[in-house]
Write a structure and sequence with these properties.
This protein has eight helices and no strands. It is an all-alpha fold. It has one domain (about 10-154). Helix 2 crosses helix 6 (about 95-115), helix 4 (about 50-65) packs across helix 5 (about 70-90) and helix 5 runs antiparallel to helix 6 (about 95-115). The protein is elongated. The two termini are about 20 Å apart.
Amino acid sequence: MNYQKLFAYGPLPIRILAGITLIIHGLPKLSNVAGSEVFFGKMGLPTDLAMLIGLLKVIGGVALIVAILTRIASILFIIEMLGATIVAKLPKGFVGGYEFDLLLMSISISLLLTGPGRASIEWNLIKRELFPKAKEYMSQQQQKTQGSTKQSSL
């Protein structure tokens, strides 16, 4: 089995589960905008941010699932999770507080670094990523790894 080909599919389950999770967390913000605005206002945040965060989570979650603009969505989620952690969750502590936000942030960082992977619209239909040099770099790294594996097996 060629592990390099398998490696390219690594982001797939991460993308799908993160996308579903973000959509599930964004839909209540959009279905009860008034309640979300009150909640954001109590935290001292602009109330208009509630709709924006809800849209980010739903649209960005869909973008992660279908793997289009994965790195842009990841950057936005990193910023959003960092803000949620600092503003709302930090006083609650790690467990029951910001552990989930840090998990989603680390998933977003991973997707930012690896890209969408092989099973994605960016890779298969568009034939390029938003950051094409990243795909080129990954291919070079895979070739280096294959070369070192061949040498070590000799």
